[in-house]
Amino acid sequence: MASTRSERLNEDIKREIISIISQMKDPRLQCFLTVMRVETAPDLTNAKVYISVLDGEEKCEAAIRVLNKSQGFIRGELSKRLRIRRSPEFVFVKDDGAAYAQRINDIIRTINNDDK
Q1: Least buried of 9, 51, 77, 101, by fewest C-beta within 10 Å?
Q2: DSSP reduced 3-state for 26
Q3: How far apart, in whole angstroms, are the C-alpha atoms of residue 60 and residue 22?
Q4: What string of pLDDT tens digits covers the 116 residues of the chain?
């Protein structure tokens, strides 16, 4: 279970990463990209940033590649904005939460239709 301090830091990092990404001019990031959550290690050496892209699988993969290549820039900007002693190294990964939720909804809908 994450402590309140780490949860607050994760939310601060998420907010700043959203701001940094929105200022980036790369055309591969001009899509419906959402930062879903950030999970930092207890020692702040690394963090996973879960993103979701609504424009399709290929745009999601392209956005993840761009973000992982730009992680040095994002890390530098983040350390300036948050003034934290150690800025974590980021790994951007696809968040499958929305697809999972849709699958569960489809299963529930099927079960409800079978009952009728």
Answers
A1: 101
A2: coil
A3: 16
A4: 457 888 998 999 999 999 999 898 888 888 788 899 999 998 888 999 999 887 778 888 888 999 999 989 999 999 889 888 788 899 999 987 777 777 888 888 888 887 66
Is the Cβ–Cβ distance between 81 and 94 less than 8 Å? no
SS3 content of the chain, % helix, strand, coil (to 5): 60, 20, 25
CB 38 within 8 A of CB 89: no
Measured from the Cβ of residue 37, the count of other Cβ atoms closer than 10 Å reads 14
pTM of the model: 0.78
Maximum separation of any 2 CA atoms in the chain, in Å:
59
Indicate the residue type of 110. T
